[in-house]
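Is this the right way to post structure tokens for a design question? Let me know if I should format differently. Anyway, here goes:
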């Protein structure tokens, strides 16, 4: 199965996918792409703009996963809109990045395979209704089974907790310390990545029960 992994980061969603997947990963940060390649040496990694790559290459794949940038959609952005930014250190209000909805509409109408677009729970009512699985939104052309409630379990400042929960270690990898935390926080939990792929390929016997452990 040919899989396109857009905005791949270091590959949290990809970690537990079977080796039978032929994965092409797209990441625009060269340093992050190198970490991904080290983790998954058999994957094809391309350093380029994922949004444009999708438009030009979508027909080449059987399954597409996209995780567009989330900072302009998340609830912390709305907290900042009513705060004293200098005092509270909340992010300033910005326009939501509409690449998210462009990709959902595009995939829904033009892609013949299975697809999923992942993002955080937004501070606004989604313009296109998603499915919710744990603490993330998913738009897809297949049903995503399992727990729907928002379930957060990780301290935002504890690198060791992320590494243990995700089974991903960045020790010895050359990224600035504060950047490492951001990079691993941006990962989709590997068990969630496996669960979503199993939903897409109807391999539920390996998915729901395992993710509850």
């Amino acid at each position: 199965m040919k899989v396109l992994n857009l905005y791949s980061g270091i590959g949290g969603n990809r970690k537990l996918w079977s080796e039978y997947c032929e994965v092409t990963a797209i990441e625009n940060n060269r340093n992050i792409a190198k970490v991904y390649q080290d983790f998954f040496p058999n994957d094809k990694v391309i350093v380029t703009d994922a949004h444009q790559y999708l438009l030009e290459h979508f027909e080449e794949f059987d399954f597409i996963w996209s995780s567009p940038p989330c900072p302009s959609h998340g609830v912390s952005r709305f907290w900042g809109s009513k705060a004293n930014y200098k005092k509270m250190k909340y992010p300033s209000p910005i326009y939501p990045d509409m690449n998210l909805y462009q990709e959902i509409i595009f995939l829904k109408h033009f892609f013949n395979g299975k697809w999923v677009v992942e993002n955080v729970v937004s501070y606004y009512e989604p313009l296109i209704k998603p499915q919710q699985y744990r603490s993330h939104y998913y738009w897809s052309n297949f049903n995503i089974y399992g727990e729907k409630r928002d379930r957060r379990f990780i301290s935002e400042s504890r690198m060791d907790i992320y590494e243990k929960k995700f089974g991903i270690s960045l020790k010895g990898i050359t990224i600035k310390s504060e950047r490492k935390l951001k990079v691993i926080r941006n990962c989709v939990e590997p068990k969630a990545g496996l669960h979503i792929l199993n939903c897409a390929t109807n391999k539920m016997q390996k998915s729901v029960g395992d993710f509850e452990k």
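Format looks fine. Someone answered above. Worth noting: The first strand starts at residue 2 and ends at 6. Residues 5 and 25 are 5 Å apart (CA to CA).
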